[in-house]
Specification:
Number of strands of chain B: 12
Distance between the termini of chain A: 14 Å
Shape of chain B: globular
Helix content of chain B: 25-40%
Number of strands of chain A: 2
Largest sheet of chain B: 6 strands, mixed
Largest sheet of chain A: 2 strands, antiparallel
Low-confidence stretches of chain B: 1-16, 263-275
Order of helices and strands of chain B: HEEEHEEHEHEEHHEHEHEEHH
Strand content of chain A: under 5%
CATH superfamily of the largest domain in chain B: P-loop containing nucleotide triphosphate hydrolases
Largest interface: A-B, 40 and 41 residues
Mean pLDDT of chain B: 84
CATH architecture of the largest domain in chain A: Orthogonal Bundle
Oligomer: heterodimer
CATH class of the largest domain in chain A: Mainly Alpha
Strand order of the largest sheet of chain A: 1-2
Strand content of chain B: 15-25%
Amino acid sequence: MARAEAPESAPDPTAAAEAAELELPPEIVAQSLGQWFRGWMVRIRSGDSGVLPVILGLVIITLVFEAVSPHNLFLSAGNLVNLFQQSAVIMVLAMAEIFALLLGEIDLSVGYVGAVGGVIAVQLVQPRTTNWPWWAAIIAALLVCAVIGGWQGTLITRLRLPSLIVTLAGLLVFNGLMLILLLLGPFSGYPNLAGLSSNLQVLYKLMWGAIDPIVSWIGMVVVVGLVGFLLWSGDSRRRRSGLVAPPVSLTLMKIALIAIVSVVVVGICNINRANTGVVEGVPWVIPIVLFVFGAWMLLLQRTQFGRYVYAIGGNPEAARRAGIKLAAIRTWCFVLCSLTAGIGGILYASYLGGMSNNVNGGQLVLYAVAAAVIGGTSLFGGRGKVLHGLLGGLVIGGIYNGLYLLSFDVQWTFIVTGFVLLVAATIDSLSRRSATSGSAARV
Amino acid sequence: MAQDTVARAVRDAPVSGESLLKARGIEKHFGPVQALTSVDLDLPAGQITALCGDNGAGKSVLTKCVAGIYQIDHGQFFWEGQPVQIHGPRDASRLGIETVYQDLALADNLDIVQNMFLGRENVRNGFLNEDDMERAASKTLANLRVTTVRSIRQPVASLSGGQRQSVAVAKAVMWNSKLVMLDEPTAALGVVQTNMVLELVRRLRDRGLAVMVISHNLNDVFQVADRIAVLYLGRMVAQDRASAFDRQSVVEYMTTGTSSRGQRVDGEAGTHGAG
């Protein structure tokens, strides 16, 4: 890898320029779209491919399953919405896991912590027992999850126990706690969201309710317009003041891409997907997941807290010397991880229409870690984005959904997902190795 | 003895007439191990002081005492003539003391701007003010004429060793610092990069900063140092203008604590073999 600093090893100026080009993200040096594209290609060839593998994976999954699924069911409106609903829980749990992974830690308990949150929400809204309003139940569930995260985070940061062990213990403890909570009340372990109570229905509709098509379109236009405006005004302000900014055409392409994806998603959701009667509109779960995504992206990319999370993941010693309170930031990451897991758990309860002891939090957490890594988040800390959770969750949901359509049994889902995870981990490891060997050669 | 040193420091300091930082009688022990014994040190503004010494001579301990990482057991620091207490890294940076450690303490996954502002981010309405930070960072780099980086938005992982050192130095000087201490700044660098970093060190001096360079490398020391201070087993055995030393005498001070060729030095310095 020609990464050594130019004056030492590469007297030829063109070779030096090429070496420098290898190291730079294209969006930084490119003045035009052509340059940007060339820089991007160079970077992919040098092993740093960003979200490209997972996007490619999604395309392959889509093409293969569309070709072989009976009656080309895979890309039907009904199935795509179903696919998103199936993926939503994994996506949210993966976004939760990213808080731990960015620190170079892991949280094995997200599945059952989420399940505890789900059970609490479902139990509290039961009209026959507590009959809490839905919003109070959700807040209570999320609070409990946040406290659990704070407890685990404190053990990890103050007592310096390995996160693997603390959260492995958490996986067992909260599996047990979930079973205890399930047995409360007169539901013999199966509290559910069936019934006419509008309070119950709100929780059920998180996953299964849909927004009116007209409102969906209006909402989409507002959101895309706002995001587009912010992107455009930010980039052009930076261009005007001579700061590092992507070329105009790239900004426009980004906005266009967001608009196209939004129109396609809303368009698909607004097709009637029922065999009889009318079921149409964007399911509530889509704006919920996008809200979690947007909030955590802002937190990690645009605030001091987020910057410190990346710094701790990249070089804890540097962060410590910079005066960052490592223990506090780490503990908060585990709080946010468990809180987000709680959101995932409530969505899962909504998906299942209730909670039971069939919930397999152990499998959910493995899917969550797998989704984050497949999306491109590093297991070694410091590298990853919330977006990776979304994309990785879609890959796993796609495999699950596609194999189900082909009437493969669940064992094949496990095997295929396992291999996809191996491929993703290999990509992570290879790009990391080339990065470190590069810097070693440069020292 | 101490008066002697003070008098010499006053004579040596060209502009201010007073050392920016004076350390007098610094003692530090770790349990039974005496790491520093009655060490005097003068760091005048606008001059590069090279701190030399063999492994275990106490260079790092002395640096860390000044940087506030270790608390001194006895002795007194004077900053611009006033007695000061340095109880922690925050005290040191409040005075204007910045240290560039050998491992540089840069986060590879963050870009140059993010590293330079790490821990002191510019925040507006709860969100990072990237535009202002980028402007300030590129101004500092331009002032130091660090122009070899292609973009200040590239991750530090993609920089060469010399560029990383430059970023670490720029990070240290961007906070109106008055004293910059560099721990082995050229230890891991090739010839070209070493020259680049030494040039940067000279530029810091030319901007009026007090600079202390810890180095094993006598080539570097004689290339840049205005003053040389030699530690031997926790004692300051020689401290004077660089022209008062030659390579042989520095090596002798470092390895034995005295110099047989020190007659010429002796007349001016008189501090070797002190304590």
